[in-house]
Known about the structure:
- By secondary structure, the protein is of the alpha+beta class.
- The chain is built from 4 helices and 6 strands, in the order αββββααββα.
- A 6-stranded antiparallel sheet has the order 1-2-3-4-6-5, with helices on one face.
- The radius of gyration is 15 Å and the shape is globular.
- The model has no long low-confidence stretch (mean pLDDT about 95).
Amino acid sequence: MTQDEIIAFVTGLPGVVAMTADEASGAPEVAWGDTFFFYDPDGEPSRRRMPFATIVTKDYDGFDTASDLNRPGVFRLNIGVGRAAFEELVGFSPRAYEEHRTEFDPTAADTLIPHPAYALQAWVSIVNPGEKTDELARTLLENARARTAR
């Protein structure tokens, strides 16, 4: 899956808008190029609180560098899945992530992992989703959108 394919898929879900940060959007420069997905069926930007998924295209120095996203052509899809789904997907609760952190390679492509910085909030990630994770990524994105809509 390319970034464009993910954006097209997610914005094709009912009530979803995507915002790719850039100078014109007023987003901080560090976020430029990253995409944020919101459930916003009324098209009212002031109601957008937290995204349910993101595409991150680079490391955030001093905060989120574990996936080494500064490599050419590398991006990471991040999805807020909720505690129950997180546990089902990775085999432990978000609170237990620190105990399991070393079991995952946050640079591995096409592999579902707990989010290196937001696992505690029940987010998972996939670096460069591909053949192995395409269907799973789509299902998780649909579920995250539905969960947010509720």
